[in-house]
Amino acid sequence: MLPKIIFCTAVSVATLAVILLALVSPVVHRRLQKNHTKPWLALSLYIQPPHLPTSSIHASGGAAGGALIFHHTLTEGSRNTSQVVGRAQGFVIPIEHFAYSSLNIIYLTFETPEFRGSLSVQAKNIKNKPREELTVVGGTGSFAFARGLAILIQADAQASDVDAMYHVKLRLRFPEHSRPIPG
């Protein structure tokens, strides 16, 4: 009976040693680091104005004290016939009392073969300038835990804010030890 116990114990210890070596092997860790998502990602996209009459844009309270709620198309190129990659949605209260509100967020939602998920862009401190630098405060899916910068450039300076097309340049950073969840 004692030889059977010694043999079973030896087999168990050997199996455990093989499993532990596989888990802590430097070769495995190097392979995982090579497959890890790059810590920086740059994207250039366009927020297209809606193809609706201006009266169907949802704004409340008038220019002096209202909220702007929008749902726009996000495309790869500047033409309105460019490949659609997602949506830009938001809720912005551009009056002084709410200018620094956490409610002022633009959500960029992506649905492409390469990227699935969304980014949250904080729209605080918007000054109605042709070029705005906003902060990316998080994301989901392919953009999980993203942080960075979103530069919005109004492509047509003559258009009103509602009818304008914006060029969006995203500079995203991902934490070193996180991996985006595949979409």
Structure described in brief:
With 183 residues, the protein is of the alpha+beta class.
Describe the structure.
The protein is built from 3 helices and 9 strands. Strands 1-3-4-5-6-7-8-9 form an 8-stranded antiparallel β-barrel. About 9% of the residues have low confidence.
List the helices and strands and how they pair.
Blueprint: H1 2-24, H2 26-35, E1 40-48, E2 58-60, H3 62-65, E3 67-75, E4 84-92, E5 105-111, E6 116-122, E7 131-141, E8 147-154, E9 166-173
Antiparallel strand pairs: 1-3, 1-9, 2-3, 3-4, 4-5, 5-6, 6-7, 7-8, 8-9
What amount of the residues lies in strands? 35-45%
Coarse morphology: elongated
**Structural class of the secondary elements?**
alpha+beta
N/C terminus separation: 55 Å
Q: How are the strands of the largest sheet arranged? A: 1-3-4-5-6-7-8-9
Largest sheet features: 8 strands, antiparallel, barrel
* Chain oligomer state: single chain
Sequence stretches where pLDDT stays below 50 over 5 or more residues? 27-36, 59-64
Structure keywords:
3 helices; eight-stranded antiparallel β-barrel; 9 strands; alpha+beta; 183 residues; 20% helix
